[in-house]
Amino acid sequence: MKAPKASLSQIREFLNAKKMAVAGVSRDPKKFGYQVYKAMKGQGYELYPLNPRASEIEDTQAYSTISQLPAEVKHLVILTPKTETEKLVMEAIAHGIDQIWIQQMSDTPEAVKLASDAGVHLVTGQCIFMWIEPVKGIHKFHRSIMKFFGLLPR
Questions:
Q1: CB atoms < 10 A from the CB of 86, how many?
Q2: Which of 36, 46, 113, 120 could form a disulfide with 1 if both were Cys (CB 3.0 to 4.6 A apart)?
């Protein structure tokens, strides 16, 4: 199943939450998961990092599984390899998470179908760096190019 394109209002609604779990956060500052986590933290998000091999990241308690997250966490960003995505979506649904952002290149047809069938509000096919304001560096350039060609969500 191909993911439905997220609208601009869906993206904004997701990012307005300010409290969310992030799966795939690395302790290595060179890794994408760490960079996303750091950028979101710097913009005031209250984050719950998910990493089964870390007890804390950046002085914040890390969680091994979604089931350990506080019940009030209803948003999840997935930054993991594709092989882990479907399992994370299943765990998220079971935990009552109803808003999921699957980073581009982490999505699979099975994970998208699972989330869609469960009525999850899903953002996929987008790079979260292009939407964490203020957008900087290469992501700002990339977003400008996409806007120029009319490829940004509306």
A1: 18
A2: 113
